[in-house]
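Sample pair:
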Amino acid sequence: MLESENKALLKRYFEEVWEKQNPEAVKLFLDPNYKRYISPTSKPLTLDDQIQRLVGFRSAFPDIQIRVDEVIAEGSFISFRSTMRGTHQGEFLGITPTGRKLTVILLDMVRIENGKFVEQWGGPDLFDLIRQLGAKIYKPAE
């Protein structure tokens, strides 16, 4: 698949899944054997796990918006940097709703085969996200 086709696929993914708030649309873009690696020490998420993960984000941050800021495509890989904004209105990672607004950077790399995401690495900066929700982890330089 050409890099331009992979970029168009990514654009459609964000439109269908995030802008139209339809996590089930993931099935149009992810291979049935999809694997999502969010940690080197945990087992990869499956297609169904990824749908539940997206539902969890939408539940915790119902006004969530993700803007793709930069995309790099080469061969069967596509990497992107995006910005997530939302208001913490539902439980997230055991943290009760705080009402806080947050802005978090996401970094992802996806391998695409036959027009479907087959493997994905990365995601949001959870360290910064939970800090913005009030966890006392560190104080960033000002």
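The chain has one domain: 3-132.
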